[in-house]
Amino acid sequence: MHEDQVDVTTEMVTSLIQEQFPEWSGKAVRPQSSAGTVNAIFRIGDDLSARFPLRLLDAGEALAVLEQEAEASAELAQVSRFPAPTPVALGKPGAGYPMPWSVQTWLPGTVASDADPSGSHAFAEDLAAFIAALRDTETRGRTFSGGGRGGVLTDHDDWMATCFEESKGLLDVPRLRQVWDRFRELPRRGADVMSHGDLIPGNVLVTGDRLGGVLDTGGFGPADPALDLVSAWHLLRPGPRDALRRALGCDDLEWERGKAWAFEQAIGVVWYYVESNPTMSRMGHRTLARILESTE
User: How far apart are CA 290 and CA 295, in angstroms?
Assistant: First the structure.
């Protein structure tokens, strides 16, 4: 999926476990099929998962990222009433893998990209309860880091220009430019709140028609209060989407800014993953269609 991607094999993971965590050497190691774009995931037995960053970083830089993610994941797990992974250990480079890696608890359930909960009002209400619990968590003086989504919409103008250029032949670019021209002008009012930061289908578990758990929690941190509203567009159809909005009490401005963050994310994944990760690209198409339908 990425030019600087590192290949990770079952044999490599098995060797790393035997060398660094011999207490788990009797557990089966199985690659986990995923539409994720950041880590290769391997199950260790029935209760653990190992995450291996895919994009090559300096080992020291990678370790700092993993330590920050582990701290964030542990904090989120303490405030969420829905299951979330908890950090277990950090591994070191070895066996041909050049970076540190992480181990966390494994959660049962089906990701929302495989078990579509988009028509479930109960799921939408669960999702709203999850977002509300994160928002109620103290920021302890922390503010948005400045990286990725969750700060100022106009900071993404250069990226959006790239997306529009790369999307020619894939999307109705003139129409999407008009939509972004409106979105980017939406003002920011609310102070930062704690947010998951990436509530896409691959990071949400479904049990029946309810929220069964939340994955990829290492980005938990302060951001625009509208950021986690991307889930309304990535995950829900109109009826349940309205239920989520009512449960969270979103005003028009916050709702539109959530739509803007979903738009920024969706247009990028359409072209970037069109060949390397079709599941992600299709998600982007679907999200954009939902957003455009809501603006007609």
Answer: 9
Tokens at 231, concatenated: 């889930």
The β-bridge relationship of strands 48-53 and 221-223 is unpaired
Q: What are phi and psi of 41, to 5 degrees?
A: -110, 130
Domains identified in the chain and CATH numbers: 10-105 (3.30.200.20), 110-295 (3.90.1200.10)
The DSSP code sequence of 84-120 is ---EEEEE-SBTTB-S-EEEEE---SEETTTS--TT-
Residue pLDDT, tens place only, 95-109: 999 999 999 999 999
Q: Is the pTM higher than 0.85?
A: yes
Cα–Cα distance measured from residue 287 to residue 75, given in angstroms and rounded to the nearest whole number:
29
